[in-house]
Structures are given as C-alpha cells and as structure tokens.
C-alpha cells in the first residue's frame, strides 16, 4: 500500500512538474523565441565569418565573440520587451541596428567588410543602450505621468530622424554611389546653388525625395497608431522590471568594457561614422595649412638669402586653369567635334605645344588646384593628399614668384570659399592682387567678364597672373550666356566647350598684345559626359574620361630667343605622359626659378622625369592610369 501511494505521488509530482514546465514555456515562449532567432543569427554569422576569412585572412576571432555576446544581449532585450507585450511599441527601436547595418554595407565595397563584426557590435550595442535609456525614463515617468506622452513623442522623433537619415544614405548609395571621404570633401566645397543643380541633375534627386517621403509617411503613420494603441492599453506600464533593467545595464557595461579593451571604440568604429568625422580632419588640415603661412615666409627668406640676386625670367607669365573640360570633345584633339576653332588654329603654330597625354591627378577641384599651384604632388611618398604634411610642400607659385620680385595676381570666376574651408582660397589670398569676380556680379558671371579685371592689374616687368575659370562646370548650360551665338547641331556640353574656346581667344589676344612671355592653359579635371556621370572619384563611379583633360603652352618669340634650351625641352615633353599635379614643376623650370628642395624628377622637362620609368597615377596616387 505504501509503495503504491509512493508511486502515485511520484507520478503526480512528475505530472505537476511537467505542467509547470509547460506553463513556463508558454509564459516565456517569446524569450525562447528570441533565443532561437539569436541562434539562427549566430549560424548566419559563422557562415559570413567563413566568407570574410577568405577575403580577409587577418580577421580576428575575438570580434566574432564580441559580436555574438552583443547579439545575446540584444535577444534578451527583445525577450524582456515581448514579455511585457511591448514588442510592437518598441519595434522601431529594434529596427534601428538592422537599418544601420544596411547603411554601412550599402556604402562600402566588399573588400572593406572585414569590419563586419565590429560594425554589428557597435550598432546592436548602441540600440540596447538606447532601449535601456528610454526604459529608465519611462519608469521615472510613472511618478510624473504628464511627461509620459512627451517622452514617447520625443523617442518617436529621434527614431524617425535616425531611420530617415540612414534610409537616405542607403538610397543615395544605391542611386549614386556611397558616401566616402571624397564625397565629404565635395560637400564641404560646394555652395547652395551648385548643390541644388547636382542634386536634381546628376543625383536622381526626384527619385530620392519621393521615395523618402513615401517611407516617412508610411512609417510615421505606423509608429503613431502602434504607440497610440499601446498607450491606451497599458497606460504608463511600458517599462521593464527593475531586475530586467539592471541585468541589461550590467550587460551593457560588460560589453563596453570588453569592447574598449579590444580597441573596437577607436580604430574599428563603423566606416560611415569615420567618414563623417573626415569633415573635422579636413577642416583641421586646412587650418594647419593656413598656420604655415609664417613658416613658409621664413623658408622663403632663407631661399632669397641664399641667392645674391633674384632668380627668374623677366616678363609676364600666365596660367589659366579650366574646369571640367574633356579633351575628347575639343576639335583640336578630336576633329569630329567642331567646338574649338581658335585652338585648332593655335595648335598649328610652331611656338604652341599641345599635350595629348595629359591627365588629371584627381577629379575634385579642391584637391587638383592646390596640387597644380604648390610643390605638393601625388608621387611624393607618404603624403596621402594631406597639404599640411610639410612646409616645403605647401609653398606655392605665388610664394616663389613674390620672393623673386614678381607681382602676382589671382582672378577667379568661381565662388570664394573661406580660408578655413578651402586651400585654394588660402593660396589665392596670398597674391598681391586678388579678384573673385562673382562677388561683384552677385554670383552670376561668365568667363569673358574677366577681361575688364585684367585692365586693373598693371603688371610690372615681372608678373605672374593665374586665372581660374568657371569653364565647363555642371550644369553646362549655365557656363555661357543665353544669347551667345553657336553653330548648329551642338549639344549643351559642346556649346560650353565652344564658348570656352571663345574666352581663350579673347585672353590670348589680350596677353599677346601686352607682351606676355608665356601663357599656359590646363583643366583641373574632365567630366564623364558620355555617360552622364560628371566627375566622381568613388570606385564604382570613376571613369577614365573624368581625367582626360587638355593642356597647352604658348611661348613668345622673345622667350624662344632668350631660352632656346627650354623651348626645346618643352617641345620634347609634349609627347610625354603627364599628370597636372606636375604643372608646378614645369612652370618653375620655364620661369627659371630654382629652389633647394626642388626634385627635378617631378618635372616633365627633366632627363630624370619620374613618369619615364614609373606608371602615371591619379586620384591622389590611389590608382594607376590604365592605358595612358
């Protein structure tokens, strides 16, 4: 009897335990569901790890472990929220890391995804921090019920803003290419009018705006009704238990500590964040360049003191810098385009040298023009397109000309940007006379309107004049007057090339009649006109035609007689491959100015010319030019 009762007791105990376990499973199924999802995510991660290991042998397993630990915490957070039946209310919060990950992977090429685990670590951990932060405030609002609704609306506003911004970057990456350091520099250098044209013209602005508006409207309606329903049902009971909150806080501090130790908060920050931070580094570099003014002055004084008399050839030397001109659309380079009647005739003169193998050193004006005007070039080791790397490299044509008794002048038909934001402006302001003609024309002037400013110069027997044209800037229809007469059958870009040829004709007439010794013309970069891409250094968008620019030099008969050896050297160099960051060295040689740190291998006129033995490069030395 006793044994029978004992057996029945064991069975009933087992049954009760089983029922309690089932009840526990039912009650906590959402937590286990979250755990199951985490397991699936982990399996997916392991597969991705295997893939990444093949393209990145240096990947470290500790990042995988940290990433998994963060996903465990994220799954627990999801489970805690679902236990309180708040999963719909917090759904936008839990979407943030997934959208952030999509943003990161849409922006950066496959060879940069060795950051994968670090990125997930940051995005999911920050989401947990945001969740805990909101949860603490909701629990406080129990005692101050009036602030409950404002808190919820503030949370919604922050999350919608974050989702909108990340979705914008994703859409931009899909339509126009990702945001990298070069894109950030372009943003720094643009002005509202230019940005407006680029956004609506080349960057699919209408598609971007419509798609984002649709997204915002749908998402706002979704969040509003979900959260309004939750508020009606649960009043202020939105927060987790204190034990759950403390557990999450402990996990957050633990993961932050391990992440800090693993250096994942420094070098391994998400690439989107590091790219946006480039804005700060860019401004700091410009400020450092400006601070070098006094150091450059001292260096030049030493240079002058080392020579008993001034160097340099007498006469007026002129450098004209064009904008966005593709030589393939110029008749003087490609006869099928009837766009350059003046330059086609100029090419036939014996004292004019056209360069058929000239390429741009980059496709962004803000990087190209300083390299044209200073000793800095992309072939100098360890410079990395940083104009603050050395005082010697930041010395400009104006610096050397002034130290040797030349009067100097800068005339520009481009926007004047503050010295802090533009090295070009900093260099321009170092000239004796500086004119930004758009300031006098309320931001709307054409290149032929530079001519009256030339009359204001009154150059001495020694002068250096640099002219920066608006040239063939996009949108091309804004680069020439509406009433200008063109031949028939020219498209809008060909019209801008034809007008540019007319402007150069006017300049040459003026400088020849005023006894100039040398006039040179070079464009900063070209545009991929044939495919409607403009100029874009991002790997997926870059095209060789963006760097296929024109360049020519006109030398007076007086120069030819005084310096026949340099006339011959220039003639010989016209068949060489050249990138326009080496124009500085050519100008220094042709002006007969020498300086201590001048390395003759960077001059195309030299017998030791670097590109005679090494491949030419572009994008600041990042890539070799294919089939130059």
Strand content: 5-15%
Overall pLDDT level: 77
Radius of gyration, in angstroms, nearest whole number: 33 Å
Q: Would you tell me the structural class of the helices and strands?
A: alpha/beta
Global geometry? elongated
Note the main sheet. Answer: 7 strands, mixed
User: Which stretches of 5+ consecutive residues score pLDDT under 50?
Assistant: 1-11
Structure notes:
There is one protein chain. By secondary structure, the protein is of the alpha/beta class. The protein folds into two domains: 28-278, no CATH class; 317-624, Alkaline Phosphatase, subunit A (3-Layer(aba) Sandwich). The protein contains 21 helices and eleven strands. It has a seven-stranded mixed sheet with strand order 2-8-7-1-6-4-5. The chain has a two-stranded parallel sheet with strand order 3-9. A hairpin with a 4-residue loop joins strand 10 (617-618) and strand 11. Helix 5 runs antiparallel to helix 10 (242-261). The N and C termini lie far apart (102 Å). The model is unreliable at 1-11 (pLDDT under 50).
């Amino acid at each position: 009897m006793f044994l029978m009762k004992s057996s029945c007791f064991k069975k009933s105990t087992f049954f009760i335990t089983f029922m309690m376990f089932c009840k526990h499973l039912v009650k906590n199924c959402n937590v286990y569901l979250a755990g199951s999802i985490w397991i699936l995510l982990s399996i997916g991660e392991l597969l991705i790890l295997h893939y990444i290991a093949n393209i990145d042998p240096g990947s470290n397993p500790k990042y995988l472990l940290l990433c998994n630990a963060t996903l465990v915490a994220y799954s627990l957070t999801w489970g805690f929220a679902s236990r309180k039946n708040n999963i719909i209310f917090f759904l936008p919060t839990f979407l943030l890391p997934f959208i952030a990950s999509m943003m990161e992977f849409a922006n950066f090429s496959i060879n940069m995804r060795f950051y994968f685990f670090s990125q997930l670590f940051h995005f999911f951990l920050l989401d947990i921090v945001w969740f805990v932060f909101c949860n603490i405030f909701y629990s406080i609002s129990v005692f101050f019920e009036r602030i409950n609704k404002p808190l919820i609306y503030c949370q919604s506003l922050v999350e919608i803003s974050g989702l909108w911004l990340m979705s914008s970057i994703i859409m931009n990456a899909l339509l126009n290419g990702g945001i990298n350091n070069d894109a950030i520099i372009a943003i720094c250098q643009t002005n509202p009018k230019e940005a407006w044209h680029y956004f609506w013209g080349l960057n699919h602005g209408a598609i971007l705006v419509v798609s984002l508006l649709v997204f915002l409207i749908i998402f706002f309606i979704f969040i509003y009704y979900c959260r309004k329903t939750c508020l009606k049902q649960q009043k202020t009971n939105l927060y987790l238990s204190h034990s759950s909150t403390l557990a999450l806080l402990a996990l957050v501090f633990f993961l932050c500590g391990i992440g800090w130790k693993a250096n994942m908060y420094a070098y391994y920050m998400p690439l989107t964040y590091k790219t946006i931070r480039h804005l700060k580094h860019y401004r700091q570099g410009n400020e450092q360049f400006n601070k070098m003014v006094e150091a450059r002055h001292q260096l030049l004084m030493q240079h002058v003191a080392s020579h008993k008399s001034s160097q340099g050839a007498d006469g007026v030397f002129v450098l004209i810098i064009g904008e966005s001109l593709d030589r393939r659309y110029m008749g003087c380079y490609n006869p099928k385009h009837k766009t350059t009647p003046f330059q086609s005739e100029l090419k036939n003169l014996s004292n004019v040298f056209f360069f058929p193998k000239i390429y741009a050193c980059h496709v962004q004006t803000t990087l190209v023009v300083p390299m044209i005007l200073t000793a800095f070039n992309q072939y100098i080791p360890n410079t990395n397109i940083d104009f603050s790397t050395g005082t010697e490299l930041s010395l400009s044509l104006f610096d050397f000309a002034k130290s040797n008794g030349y009067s100097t002048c800068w005339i520009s038909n481009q926007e004047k940007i503050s010295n802090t934001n533009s090295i070009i402006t900093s260099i321009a302001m170092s000239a004796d006379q500086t004119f930004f003609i758009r300031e006098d024309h309320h931001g709307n002037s054409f290149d032929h309107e530079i001519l009256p400013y030339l009359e204001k110069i009154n150059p001495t027997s020694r002068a250096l004049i640099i002219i920066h044209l608006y040239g063939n800037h996009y949108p091309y229809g804004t680069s020439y007057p509406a009433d200008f007469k063109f031949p028939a059958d020219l498209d809008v870009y060909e019209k801008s090339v034809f007008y540019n040829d007319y402007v150069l004709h006017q300049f040459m007439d003026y400088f020849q009649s005023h006894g100039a010794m040398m006039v040179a013309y070079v464009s900063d970069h070209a545009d991929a006109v044939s495919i409607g891409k403009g100029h874009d250094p991002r790997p997926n968008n870059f095209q060789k035609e963006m760097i296929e620019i024109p360049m020519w030099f006109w030398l007076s008969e007086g120069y030819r007689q005084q310096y026949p050896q340099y006339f011959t050297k220039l003639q010989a160099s016209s068949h060489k491959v050249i990138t326009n960051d080496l124009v500085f060295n050519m100008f220094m040689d042709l002006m007969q100015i020498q300086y201590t740190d001048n390395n003759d291998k960077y001059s195309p006129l030299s017998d030791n010319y670097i590109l005679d033995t090494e491949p030419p490069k572009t994008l600041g030395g990042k890539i070799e030019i294919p089939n130059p």
